Amino acid sequence: MVKLVDQEKATVPFLNSALHYGLGVFEGIRCYNTESGPAVFRLTDHMERLVNSAKIMGFRKLPYSVPELVAAAKDVVRSNGFKACYIRPLIYNTSPKPSLNLDNGNGHGRHRRLGVGRLPGEKSVR
């Protein structure tokens, strides 16, 4: 189960490979405000691509399944009361020391949510 934490308490270790070597994967996912409430565009497809990207990069173990990542993204939107937002899941290596060798650690996941105002090209979407 994915645990939500306040932004001030969410940390990423300084000595992680994503920060120093770009060894991580992420997705950028839009949640739109609709008459029926928030709607996340192709959420399962995004999370499948995130997991597949991590596997292609060489991550051996991942902390969450696709259904858990989907549920976490929905929970992030719901718990923050967003109508429209940008969701940014990230998977990075949790090796105790920075390394390009993914055999030394496990994948670790984070979701970042951002409230959004107008984005470029948004006028054409309406």
Relevant terms:
25% strand, 5-stranded antiparallel β-sheet, alpha+beta
Can you tell me about this structure?
Residues 112-116 have low confidence and may be disordered. The longest helix is centred in the middle third of the chain and has 15 residues, at 43-57. A hairpin with a 2-residue loop joins β2 and β3 (37-40). The chain contains four helices and five strands. α2 crosses α3 (66-80). It starts with 16 loop residues before the first helix and ends with a helix. The chain is 31% helix and 25% strand. Strands 1, 2, 3, 4 and 5 form a five-stranded antiparallel β-sheet that branches. It is α+β, with helices and mostly antiparallel strands and 126 residues long.
Secondary-structure blueprint:
Elements: H1 17-21, E1 24-26, E2 29-34, E3 37-40, H2 43-57, H3 66-80, E4 85-93, E5 107-115, H4 122-125
Antiparallel strand pairs: 1-4, 2-3, 2-4, 4-5
The overall pLDDT average reads 79
Please state the CA-atom Rg, rounded to the nearest Å: 15 Å
> How many strands, which pairing sense, and closed or not: the largest β-sheet?
5 strands, antiparallel
Indicate the overall shape: globular
Counting helices, strands and paired strands, the structural category is alpha+beta
- Using DSSP, what is the number of strands? 5
Secondary-structure element sequence?
HEEEHHEEH
| Helicity level | 25-40%
Percentage of residues in DSSP E strands: 15-25%
Uncertain spans: 112-116
Straight-line N-to-C gap: 35 Å
Separate helix tally: 4
